Amino acid sequence: MIVQPLIRNNICVNAHPVGCAAAVASQIKYAQEKRAGRAAPREVPKTVLVVGASSGYGLASRITAAFGFGADTIGVSLEKEGSDYPTQITGTPGWYNNMAFDRAAKAAGLASVTFNGDAFSHAMRKQVVDAVKQAGKKIDLVIYSVASAVRVDPDTGELYRSAIKPIGEALTGETIDYATGKISTVSAEPATAEEAANTVKVMGGENWALWTRQLAHAGVLANGVKTVIYSYNGPAFSHAIYRDGTIGEAKRHLEETAKALDKELRATLEGEAYVSINKGAVTRTNAAIPTIPLYLSVLFKVMKERGTHEGCIEQMDRLFAERLYTGGPVPTDGNGLIRIDDLEMDPKVQDEVRKRMATITQENFAQVGDFKGYRHDFLAANGFDIDGVDYSADVPSMERF
Ligand SMILES: NC(=O)c1ccc[n+]([C@@H]2O[C@H](COP(=O)([O-])OP(=O)(O)OC[C@H]3O[C@@H](n4cnc5c(N)ncnc54)[C@H](O)[C@@H]3O)[C@@H](O)[C@H]2O)c1
User: Fold this and answer.
1) 295 noted as active-site residue
2) What is the DSSP track for 148-215?
3) Does residue 51 lie in a domain region?
4) Lowest-confidence range among 111-125, 246-260, 282-296?
């Protein structure tokens, strides 16, 4: 079957299996080249668990751990398999990313175990614990990179939905409409107190804490273990929808969780827990958030001009090499947060982005911002628009490739 991108409500709803594999291969190549270009680090993680491992920052973390630092990895994600007969529907990109990762890890002699299932369930945690015990290993790095719209509480069975909404006042902002290639205006009503609380339940630190404590209790965390969860701050103008909105409440909750987990891990395992503030990237999750796509397209243009632009894999290489595994203490800001959004938040970059955003019109937005680059990343997250892939060729299988 020939597979072309299907875009609905600014979300790409299908994936190109061969393109996904090519995108994974190119991230692996990047991690390997970075590894070859630096002196052997004084410390490396040996066994790494990534929860939310199949796309975006989690996938880049797993690739960096394995191919940049030589670690065996366990990946957990929730992805949908493709089907050949009778529907010929593609799976989700993460499904193909996982397959490509596992194949490359095996070829490189790196152990990799991939679980497809609900990271909010106790059962998934148990499967991971059993697999680690069976392998006779201990985990020395846990990355938590789940982005989800829903969570079923594993104790009560209650379903919670997260909402990306402002708090207090409605918000109207512009976004890039991929279907029409134009700027369109989107509005978001303020969240109810219940929606805000539910977003904290889904995207806050509770599930990360459950993972950390269950793994510690089972005795599968190594002495000196580190655990990291990802967050985003972004520029002041995005705060109404992000940092001061429902998702910001969830992010503050995970900062509080990090403090509690850090204390516990230091006391029991000489371990550490961190929030890493990452750069805004085009992943499957954020393309639908109002104002963010337009900001990112201008940001990319400015950062590319300055030679400081990074995607997920570049960010994760820096996180590992310059923050987590330097051989010394992990560098953080005054609030104990790891900042790899430093290049994005550089005041010179932000000033320039602000100036250019004020000049955007329907006619000039593709030139003022890096619309082409942004659109590429949007499509690439689903395996489309990848160099060297023949999109006119038949994809032999939606299940495997
Ligand atoms: N994208 C950005 O610009 C950005 C910037 C800074 C920080 N972050 C943060 O990084 C983290 C990851 O975001 P992303 O953009 O890489 O997301 P993504 O959508 O690319 O990946 C999300 C991952 O979560 C997994 N997942 C979702 N629900 C699951 C479930 N029930 N069980 C198991 N796995 C599940 C998916 O399978 C996938 O592996 C989030 O915390 C996000 O806030 C993102």
Assistant:
1) no
2) -SEEE-TTT--EEE-----SSS-EEEEEEETTTTEEEEEEEPPPPHHHHHHHHHHHSSHHHHHHHHHH
3) yes
4) 282-296
